[in-house]
């Protein structure tokens, strides 16, 4: 019998969710990017890890920013100019610190609000496919 005040073992769904949360990590940030400014972010990534960067300009001017992603050696993996939104997926070629920057340096008087989601590692399904019930498996 569990000690008083203890609920005992975790329910299976909660345990699956906790394991999934450990397998991948993500950063979701919304920030203000002033005119004539550049903001960079850094992430330690292990070789062979699949990553996805998604971003969107939420407010400001023509809703556009420049975006650049570099590997630990400074090799440009992704570079787009004056984009409103985009998504880029890559697999890390080596261990190290990857850098991605958003730039509003082309704007002389309009600041932007930028949202991004940087996913490191694959998000495992919450429910394994062999246990998933669909219309076809019910027939």
From TrEMBL:
Superkingdom field: Eukaryota
Annotated source species: Spizella passerina
Biological role stated in the UniProt entry: Potential role in vesicular protein trafficking, mainly in the early secretory pathway. Appears to play a role in the biosynthesis of secreted cargo including processing and post-translational modifications.
PROSITE patterns in alphabetical order: GOLD, PROKAR_LIPOPROTEIN
Keywords per UniProt: Cytoplasmic vesicle, Endoplasmic reticulum, Glycoprotein, Golgi apparatus, Membrane, Protein transport, Signal, Transmembrane, Transmembrane helix, Transport
SMART domains xref list: EMP24_GP25L (SM01190)
Keyword Lyase: no
Topology term for the membrane: Single-pass type I membrane protein
InterPro entries: Emp24-like, GOLD_dom, GOLD_dom_sf
Gene Ontology biological-process annotations: protein transport
GO CC terms in record: COPI-coated vesicle membrane; endoplasmic reticulum membrane; endoplasmic reticulum-Golgi intermediate compartment membrane; ER to Golgi transport vesicle membrane; Golgi apparatus
Signal sequence, renumbered to the chain: 1-26
Annotated compartments: Cytoplasmic vesicle, COPI-coated vesicle membrane; Cytoplasmic vesicle, COPII-coated vesicle membrane; Endoplasmic reticulum membrane; Endoplasmic reticulum-Golgi intermediate compartment membrane
Similarity-based family: Belongs to the EMP24/GP25L family.
Protein name per the record: Transmembrane emp24 domain-containing protein 7
Pfam families the UniProt entry points to: EMP24_GP25L
Domain GOLD: 38-120
């Amino acid at each position: 019998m569990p000690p008083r005040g203890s609920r005992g073992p975790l329910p299976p769904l909660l345990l699956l969710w906790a394991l999934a949360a450990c397998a991948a990590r993500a950063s979701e940030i919304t920030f203000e990017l002033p005119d004539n400014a550049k903001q960079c972010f850094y992430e330690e990534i292990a070789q062979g890890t699949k990553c996805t960067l998604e971003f969107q300009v939420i407010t400001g001017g023509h809703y556009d920013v420049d975006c650049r992603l570099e590997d630990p050696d400074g090799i440009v993996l992704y570079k787009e100019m004056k984009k409103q939104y985009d998504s880029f997926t890559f697999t890390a070629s080596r261990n190290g610190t990857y850098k991605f920057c958003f730039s509003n340096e082309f704007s002389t008087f309009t600041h932007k609000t930028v949202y991004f989601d940087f996913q490191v590692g694959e998000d495992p399904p919450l429910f394994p496919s062999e246990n998933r019930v669909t219309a076809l498996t019910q027939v």
